[in-house]
Amino acid sequence: MPERILVVDDDRATRDLLEAVLTDAGYEVTLVPGGPAALAAVATAPPALILLDLRMPGMSGLEVCRALKRDPTTAPIPVLVVTAYGELDEKERTLRCGADDVVTKPIDAAEMLPRVRALLTIRHLRQPLDRTLNYLAALEIEHTCPHPAPPARDARGAPPPGALFATGR
Question: Which of 129, 130, 111, 115 is closest to 50 using CA atoms?
Answer without folding.
Answer: 115
